From TrEMBL:
Organism: Rhizobium etli
Transmembrane segments: none
SUPFAM superfamilies linked: Homeodomain-like
GO MF annotations in UniProt: DNA binding; DNA-binding transcription factor activity
InterPro entries, A to Z: Homeodomain-like_sf, HTH_RpiR, WH-like_DNA-bd_sf
Keywords: DNA-binding
Keyword match Ion transport: no
Name of the molecule in the record: DNA-binding MurR/RpiR family transcriptional regulator
Residues in HTH rpiR-type domain copies: 16-92
Amino acid sequence: MSATHPMKDQRPQTFQELKQCIAEGRIFFPNQMEQVARRMLEHPEMVAFESAASVAKKCGVSQTTVIRLSSFLGIGSYRGLKDLCARYIRERSKAMSPPYQVPQPPPRNVG
């Protein structure tokens, strides 16, 4: 597979895999898609929680470019890209937050 072609055969399963593919130079994006990909890597919450139209406006590209990024990565749909980013955010927040503990009531004085 050439690095300039979409990732249809080796689509990233996680956000971390996507970052690794880019870092290793296995993915080269067309110019406008690269703008979206860079912003997505810096701000995955943008893709996870916003519409393709909103992301496009923030990246200065067309909505079609944002949607095509999903296909280019082999993910298929913008919904799939949103899910990939949302999963990453959930995993990251679990790793960063301490386990929740139920507060215990203060001891009662008997006597």
